[in-house]
Amino acid sequence: MPSDPRPDRPSVPTGSPPVEVATVGETMVVLCPAPGEPLEDAERIAVSVGGAESNVAGYLARLGHQATWVSRVGDDPFGRTVVRHVATAGVRVDHVRVDPAAPTGLYVKDPGPAGTAVHYYRAGSAASRMDTAALAHPGLAGARVLHLSGITPALSASCRALAEHAVTDRPLPDALVSFDVNHRARLWPVERAAPVLRDLADRSDLVFVGQDEAYALWDTADPMAVRRLLPGPRTVVVKDGAVGATELGRDAAPVFVPAPRVTVVEPVGAGDAFAGGYLAGLLRGLDPTRRLRLGHLVAAQALGSIGDNASLPPWSWFEGLLDAPDDAWSPLDLTATTQQTSRDPGWSGP
């Protein structure tokens, strides 16, 4: 495959396997003081990385799939940190452009008695300058899944055009378009976001949405109401936190799988982990019950870990639970497993 002559876009490594999943969106540097320490009093700040779409790609890579992350970063130390972090998770980064004219986005956490506030510094970021050309690279051809979220269209007019291009023009014609609604109220209020997110979701093939955000956006009270609101997708997956998740196919009866119990250490990134697990199940040809279970099992690892990306048990562990009878699944408590995974970061891989 010929390399792209533009210096700001790395070429596809020679001999790389074809991409199975392409995820598109912004990943930022995260700055966080010590737990419970207000930002204004902090003397030391921890640096990490967070981004919904690259999180999904990371979980897919950990489950043995070829995933690439499509984005832009600034030509700055934060941009290099982001790319290195995503690549370390096993995700291909050869479709990330380095933009010399815009900075890498970042957000800062501010812990307090009422919870953790978040301050974004992403206006005018390199990723906010993405446009429809982001999906034109020949190395993306043949991808089986294109995954994006409702965060991207909130970043800028060109990013909204990119999201609309992905779901309408289908620049990757062989790919199932997966869309996580992922509404961020800090980026745009409900009255602006609701019609845009509904339109993008309805033109996608697969939609992930939380029951709580569907209610906030569209006043839908249950999974069937969400399905009626979104008749276009082949499949809608409605997540209801610790209760469980429901898959609603266009021509099939709804399938509900309860969530296993887990002690929550940090909820950040659990939705991305669920999407990564579910998509891995879809790529492996699992039936609805098993792919919902896989989503729950991967999300449990995220819930029991600090940070956006959790290590995963070996695939043999997943297989045993995917095939468990319903009466063994329902009382499942994964607290011990998530604790072991967090203690042993090397316990990750297919």
UniProtKB/TrEMBL annotation:
Residues 21-313 form the Carbohydrate kinase PfkB domain. It comes from the Bacteria. Keywords: Kinase, Transferase. GO terms for molecular function: kinase activity. PANTHER family: 2-DEHYDRO-3-DEOXYGLUCONOKINASE_2-DEHYDRO-3-DEOXYGALACTONOKINASE, SUGAR KINASE. Belongs to the carbohydrate kinase PfkB family. This is Sugar kinase. It comes from Micromonospora parastrephiae.
